[in-house]
Structures are given as structure tokens and as C-alpha cells.
Amino acid sequence: MTLRAPVYKSRVRILVVEDEKKTASFIRQALQAEHFAVEVTHDGGEALLRAQQTPFDAIVLDIMLPGLDGLGVLRKLREQRNQTPILLLSARGEVNERVAGLNAGADDYLAKPFALAELIARVRSLARRAAEPKPVLLRVGDLTLDTATRRAQRGGATVELTTREYRLLEYLMRTPGRICGRLTILEKVWDYNFDPGTNLVDVYVKRLREKLDVGHATRLLHTVRGAGYVLREEP
After folding, report:
1. Range 129-132 contact pairs with CB under 8 angstroms and sequence separation of 24 or more
2. Could you read off the pLDDT of 26-55 as tens digits, one per residue?
3. What is the pTM of this model?
């Protein structure tokens, strides 16, 4: 297996959802100047799909979007137990709208027009929150992972893992039910970008699946054709 030399360390990843292209461009440039990795979309449906497939560290989400609006995106993500920190943006700053956004699960709210310096400070705060230590005991079905002792168990039986298998499992268990693409897994678990054609992820997923699912009626680690992998209870 031949791998290219690593390109760069993974950075804090931000999704910006804003239908006003000039505003979106300003936000992107300001965040990139602060060394955030930024993706932009102008559509609510596309934003929902990206947030479901890619673990972002924070989302900047405009309320007024064509089609599925920002509140709709927010509600659907929270219904799916996606807890990515979200900063809502709106041209309207009425109290009832702010309350509706916060009640729907937003972490912060910023009314337009806003100073880019304030937006950057709020995004940085949300990203720090996302990076705070997560619960020590992770659980998906009858699979548990103690991140303090690095001990995995399925149905009460210990699952022996190599260091890389452990990191892969921990990443998947921190995003249960979410489809994780191969390139994202490479970046998050191996810390670098590799040749997109490498089968490194597939090899480790196969090893992990053999350790987790063989001998159990309920499968946990699934392949989503053309998209990646997901950890969830499914016959």
C-alpha cells in the first residue's frame, strides 16, 4: 500500500450556510484568515446533507434560506441527535425569533448586520465548546467504549483493539448514526490527507467489523455505498 506524504494537520472545520453570496464570501474569507477550514453552501437542503455526512466543529446558519430555511435545518439536525454547535444568523433581531431559534437547539444567535470580528469570536467560542472533553463512556447498542481505559466491550465481552482500530472506533462512536466519508475518516483518525485512492480506511473498517459484528445477530458497522461508513444498530 503506497501513501502520499501528509499534506497538513486537520483544522477546525466550519460550515457556512448563507444564501447571500457576497455575505457568504465575506464570512468565508474572515474565517479562513483565522485558519479555519471553511465550506460554504447557499441552500438549506444541501446544508442538511453536508452536516449529516461530515462532522463539522461548528455551523454558521442563516435563517432566511430558499427551500428549507435555517430553522428547518436546525430542527432536523437536532431531531437526528446531531449536536454540532450552531450559530444562527438573521436580518431580523426580534426577541421571539431569537427565542424560537434557541428553543430549536441553536447555541448562539447573531443579528444582521454584524461585525466580522464578533462573528469570528462567537465561532471560535463554539468551536472550543465542541473540542471540550466528551463523555468518558460511549455506547451504541450493546457496544461500549471507555475512553479513559480504552476498553471496548460488546455484549459484556472485551473487544481487543489495536491503537488505530481504537481511534477509528472512538471516532465512529462519537458520531453514531452519521455517515462518515472515507476522506473525512482519514483526516480525523489519521490526522492527515492521504491519496484519495488509498484503501486504508476500507482495510481498517473490515478488521473492525470482524471484531465487532462476527457472532452477533445485530450488525453495528455498516457500509453506505458511495458515501462511507456508519455505526448504528441494524439487523
Report:
1. 129/85, 130/57, 130/58, 130/84, 130/85, 131/12, 131/57
2. 999 999 999 999 999 999 999 999 998 888
3. 0.56
Phi, psi of 33 (to 5 degrees): -65, -25
pLDDT of 66 reads 86
Label the pairing between strands 86-90 and 108-111.
parallel
**How far apart are alpha carbons 165 and 142 in whole angstroms?**
18
- Per the CB < 8 A criterion, the answer to whether 5 and 195 are in contact is no
| Burial class of residue 98 (count of CB atoms within 10 Å of its CB; 0-12, 13-18, 19+) | middle
The answer to whether the peptide bond before residue 85 is cis (omega within 30 degrees of 0) is no
For the stretch 74-98, pLDDT in tens is 999 988 878 889 999 988 766 777 7
For the chain, domain boundaries? 13-131, 137-234
DSSP-based helix, strand, coil % in the chain, nearest 5 = 40, 25, 40
Place of cell 467560542: 125
- Looking at residues 127-136, what average pLDDT do you find? 71
Name the CATH superfamily for 13-131. Answer: Response regulator (3.40.50.2300)
What dihedral do alpha carbons 205, 206, 208, 211 form, nearest 10°?
Answer: 170
Q: What DSSP character marks residue 25?
A: H
What does the alpha-carbon distance between residue 199 and residue 170 come to, in Å, rounded to a whole number?
Answer: 20
What is the per-residue pLDDT for 19? 93
CATH architecture entry for 137-234: Orthogonal Bundle (1.10)
